[in-house]
Amino acid sequence: MRYFFYPNSVAIFGSFREGAIAREILRNIVEGGFEGKIIPVNPKGGEVEVAGKKFNIKEKLDEPVDVSIIAIPAKLVPELIRGLKGLTKGAVVISAGFSEVGNVELEKELIKAAKEAGIRVIGPNCAGIFGVHAKFYGSFEVRVNPGGLALISQSGAFGGAALAMGNEEGIGFSAFVSYGNAADLDESDFLRFFADDENTRVIGLYIEGVKDGRKFLDALRYAASKKPVIILKAGKSRAGARAAASHTGSLAGSYEIYRAAFRQAGAIEVEEMEELFDAAKAFEMYERAGRRVAIITNSGGPGVLATDKLERLGLEIAKLTEETVEELRSFLPPQCSVKNPVDLIADADYERYKRAIEVVCRDENVDAILVICVPPIFIPSEEIARAVVEANCDKPIIVNFMAGELVREGIKILESKKIKNFPTPERAAKALYWLSLRSSSE
Predict the structure, then answer these.
(1) Which of 82, 124, 206, 249 has the fewest Cβ atoms surrounding its Cβ within 10 A?
(2) How far does the signal peptide extend, from start to end residue (predicted)?
(3) Are the C-beta atoms of residues 235 and 248 closer than 8 Å to each other?
């Protein structure tokens, strides 16, 4: 399936008038900087200009391409697929109007045609695909920054919203695939592919239901053995399951069965979109973290909130050794707390943070550190951010800088060093919890 996400050539079938889906996909591919061959196809021919580039529209495809993206009326798709035999390896069928609206026979005809032609199909009824490291944006969704998250989404609209939200959250993506009705390639195939993809560090999966439970469990187990797999499952309630069945024609099934399968495979289930991205951010930075956490803060309240959340999640508030406590006491003002959480108090500066992180990091009872910063107006957040990135520490550090304008410049420094910020103590604590799940599954 590599040709889908690292293609050298692409054909786009559809209307190229202003506002048409095929034109928007063409624009995305051009503006995204794709360096391979791009061929627009429409029986009417003509030419189209997007992003300052002119293309002749071919009346039919007459040379081989790796991928064909199809956005034409559903009833015409099977015939087009038959005609692409020997001309394309894979087809991404954007067109809707198949099993999701009860048109099961047309979908069967599409897959029969594809099998006879030797073509693999993503879709139909999907939003397309991205191969971000190949600068290939074969979708009408918002483009994203390169990184390590491969997002697999059964729902095109969810996928689009998630990509936009990922941009807001500073997430980097390796790939995106909206697979719609999964008439041929399904979530299991993509799990296996991204498990072995060199640019993917973590896999995010949005599913409503699967058709082949055994295939899914095998693929999930394989993928989760290679890298973190984060799952957001929709259709947990009875009403949600009915909605999922009508949305993509999938078998939603009992949520308890899915939940057991996720656990058995070693995947990480999250409850909300926000959590999916928080988990992805954590795993882009670290492969895993142990359960014993030290908190370093300049504000008591957020330290207490983090402590509460960590304990509720079953993590340990690390007991610092006597040596660590004594060393902290040797340079911290007497009003600072040198137990865990270590409270550096409001006027904590670069030196106080850096030394505290380094001392705590050396403690044999500490697996990971949560650094909290609520900067007073007289100490710029950039100073504390530099302390975090310059501290000599080889253990996972999760950071909570808050809030808003006060920490914007500090967060930029953190992100320039690939350190992601979690905007609340609770979200930072949960990031450590997800990292700990990978350690406990080893």
Answers:
(1) 82
(2) none
(3) no
